[in-house]
């Protein structure tokens, strides 16, 4: 027991030293953020090829912008691409100009957005606990630094964030803009109260000096404070990332929060809403106006109709799921920390409205995080089309909620007995309640380990990878993963039995980092080697073998990565007979060269029933065949394409 107290005392002394030396505190904080940011987002970011099917669509549309100089209308494979607004394409095209057209440039905007968001979460948590210490007139650097370190780690090191921060699509850019906007709103909301209080105290102190002018009231300022301005700018960025959802969701969250705490009119007035609307419109509308001017109703119907309204009201592209879908997504996407979310929410006692309305503005941070989480979760649960990436913007709120829960167990030894419970926005949770969640954590990790041991019986087949299950088993990764999480379950159980609560979350984080380094990363390289590398190699062959104006047909599947890596227009055809008919029609036109390139899965290729002299094999990689089919008289009536 004395050893435990000695260790904790030494830790407190170290954090006190950091608190007394701002330069040291900033250095340690920056190093921590760089470490977790590199592990989560930077390490091997561009060393894995583009992943079909969505990522290459963005990458190629951005490449077309970069090559053609058309920064208004996105194109893919010769057709307009109206799925998403232009911000992601602009960011990727700028990255191409700086570091070249490669995988790093494709994914860098997502990684930067994720890292910037992690830094802002860290800053906000630091600020929140500094304000709480100021209110309670006590210094608790251990709690402040530990909680902010944990919050940043929870934000960065979870499956949902890592997947989308390492993928060159618009989801992380939307989340970065939207979540940062919400954090900026809250900083502006709480900072406005501090500014008014500061102005009031200065005015009282300066009444004795008639020569000094009274401070200008905050309400007379033309523009809102800097955080509100940042909120408006980031909302515009969210709109340019994914459209109306970029303003609808933050608007719902802010409105729900202000109505709950009874400050709706007051805060809208101090936000200078008219100025904010002008900022948002001024930054976001010009591109929409230009793209509509150039493309007319084609854009309006495709983007606003199909990709926004229909996705909310109807099933699009077969992406339907049961009502409990997002419970599973959050459970696994925020694993292994998701088991602590129920307790994190109950701890707030958010139903006690009068209590929350009586608090200082900054003390309402936990309530704000909960409404952020609940609004996004509820919105997309109601939506008919469902995808795992839709709830990515609630992950920062989940990280904040869990970090606030653990802050109750990061108390400084010297201050622990001096803080009145009534001064805290939420009384510390009882260790017995945490113990229940802790044992749920043990069960969850044990189930996860069991599932990974038997992963080959859970996963489906992949037609692009032959002997998929056997190859996974040969890598040994399922055993390594299962053992890792089983060890974590045992360690968490041991800590719970010894009532060492504050180390439980650290075991989960360390376990996830080990899982990322020793399982997920090797698994990514394995999937890339077996699934994507053959297509990249065939793209290189196509570049060398293709004759001028020779058509490339992809039969039976759509792999947009071939368009990106070969820089060639691809004609996608679904059925063997459709390909045969198309080749006949092209031959009848007397086109030059008198041949087409055909890229097909082996099964589809065999269904074409080509004879050996009907084609010339150029390359076979993985599950794919690349052949040249000349326009000439065929012995088989089926392939008479002369």
Strand content: 5-15%
Shape: globular
Give the fraction of residues assigned to helices.
Answer: 55-70%
Count of beta strands:
7
Structural classification: mainly alpha
> Spatial order of the strands in the main sheet?
4-3-5-7-6
Q: What is the averaged pLDDT score?
A: 87
Identify low-pLDDT runs. Answer: 205-218, 634-642
Computed CA radius of gyration, to the nearest angstrom: 29 Å
Alpha plus pi helix count:
26
What is the first-to-last residue Cα distance?
A: 90 Å
Mind describing the biggest β-sheet? 5 strands, mixed
Topology:
Blueprint lengths: L1 H19 L1 H21 L11 H15 L6 E2 L2 E2 L6 H13 L3 H34 L4 H16 L2 H7 L5 H36 L19 H17 L2 H17 L2 H7 L2 H23 L1 H17 L11 H9 L7 H8 L4 H6 L6 H18 L12 H13 L23 H23 L1 H4 L9 H8 L1 H21 L6 H42 L5 E5 L5 H6 L3 E4 L2 H13 L6 E7 H6 L8 E6 L2 E7 L12
Short structural description:
The chain is mainly α. It has 26 helices and seven strands. The C terminus is likely disordered.
Verbal overview:
The chain is 65% helix and 5% strand. The chain has 26 helices and seven strands. It has helices spanning 2-20, 22-42, 54-68, 87-99, 103-136, 141-156, 159-165, 171-206, 226-242, 245-261, 264-270, 273-295, 297-313, 325-333, 341-348, 353-358, 365-382, 395-407, 431-453, 455-458, 468-475, 477-497, 504-545, 561-566, 576-588, 602-607; strands spanning 75-76, 79-80, 551-555, 570-573, 595-601, 616-621, 624-630. β3 (551-555), α24 (561-566) and β4 form a beta-alpha-beta unit. Residues 205-218 and 634-642 have low confidence and may be disordered.
């Amino acid at each position: 027991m004395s050893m435990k107290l000695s260790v904790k005392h030494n830790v407190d002394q170290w954090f006190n030293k950091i608190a007394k030396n701002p330069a040291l505190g900033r250095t340690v904080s920056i190093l921590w953020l760089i470490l977790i940011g590199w592990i989560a987002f930077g390490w091997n970011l561009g060393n894995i090829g583009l992943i079909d099917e969505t990522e290459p669509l963005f990458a190629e549309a951005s490449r077309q912008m970069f090559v053609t100089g058309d920064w208004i209308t996105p194109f893919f494979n010769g057709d307009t691409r109206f799925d998403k607004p232009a911000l992601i394409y602009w960011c990727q095209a700028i990255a191409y100009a700086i570091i070249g057209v490669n995988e790093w440039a494709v994914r860098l905007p997502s990684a930067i957005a994720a890292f910037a968001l992690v830094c802002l979460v860290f800053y906000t948590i630091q600020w929140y606990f500094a304000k709480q210490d100021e209110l309670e007139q006590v210094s608790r650097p251990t709690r402040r630094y530990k909680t902010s370190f944990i919050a940043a780690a929870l934000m960065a090191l979870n499956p949902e964030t890592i997947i989308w921060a390492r993928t060159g699509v618009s989801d992380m850019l939307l989340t970065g803009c939207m979540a940062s906007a919400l954090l900026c709103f809250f900083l502006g909301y709480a900072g406005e109260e501090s500014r008014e209080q500061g102005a009031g105290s200065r005015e009282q102190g300066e009444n004795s000096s008639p020569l000094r002018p009274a401070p200008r009231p905050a309400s007379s300022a033309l523009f809102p404070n800097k955080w509100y301005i940042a909120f408006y700018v980031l909302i515009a960025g969210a709109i340019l990332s994914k459209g109306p959802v970029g303003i609808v969701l933050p608007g719902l969250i802010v409105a729900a929060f202000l109505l709950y705490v009874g400050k709706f009119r007051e805060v809208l007035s101090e936000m200078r809403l008219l100025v904010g609307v002008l900022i948002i419109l001024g930054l976001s509308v010009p591109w929409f106006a230009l793209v509509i001017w150039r493309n007319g109703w084609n854009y309006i119907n495709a983007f606003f109709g199909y990709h926004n309204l229909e996705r909310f009201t109807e099933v699009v592209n077969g992406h339907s799921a049961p009502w409990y879908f997002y419970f599973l997504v959050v459970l696994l996407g925020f694993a292994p920390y998701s088991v602590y979310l129920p307790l994190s929410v109950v701890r707030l006692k958010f139903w006690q409205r009068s209590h929350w309305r009586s608090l200082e503005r900054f003390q309402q941070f936990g309530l704000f995080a909960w409404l952020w989480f609940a609004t996004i979760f509820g919105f997309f649960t109601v939506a008919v089309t469902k995808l795992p990436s839709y709830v990515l913007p609630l992950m920062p709120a989940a990280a904040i909620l869990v970090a606030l829960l653990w802050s109750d167990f990061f108390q400084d030894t010297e201050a622990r007995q001096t803080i009145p419970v009534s001064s805290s926005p939420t009384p510390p949770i009882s260790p017995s309640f945490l113990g229940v969640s802790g044992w749920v954590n043990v069960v969850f990790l044990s189930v996860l380990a069991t599932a990974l041991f038997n992963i080959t019986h859970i996963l489906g087949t992949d037609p692009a990878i032959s002997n998929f299950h056997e190859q996974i088993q040969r890598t040994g990764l399922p055993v390594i993963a299962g053992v890792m999480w089983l060890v974590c379950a045992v360690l968490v159980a041991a800590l719970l039995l010894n009532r060492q609560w504050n180390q439980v979350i650290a075991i989960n984080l360390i376990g996830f980092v080990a899982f990322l380094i020793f399982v997920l990363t090797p698994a990514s390289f394995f999937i890339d080697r077996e699934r994507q590398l053959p297509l990249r190699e065939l793209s290189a062959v196509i570049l060398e073998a293709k004759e001028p104006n020779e058509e490339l047909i992809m039969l039976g599947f759509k792999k947009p990565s071939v368009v990106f890596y070969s820089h060639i227009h691809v004609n996608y055809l679904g059925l063997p007979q459709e390909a045969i008919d198309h080749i006949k029609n092209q031959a009848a036109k007397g086109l030059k060269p008198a041949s087409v390139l055909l890229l097909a899965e082996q099964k589809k290729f065999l269904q074409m029933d080509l004879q050996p002299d009907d084609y010339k094999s150029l390359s076979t990689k993985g599950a794919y065949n690349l052949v040249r089919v000349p326009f000439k008289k065929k012995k088989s009536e089926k392939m008479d394409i002369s």
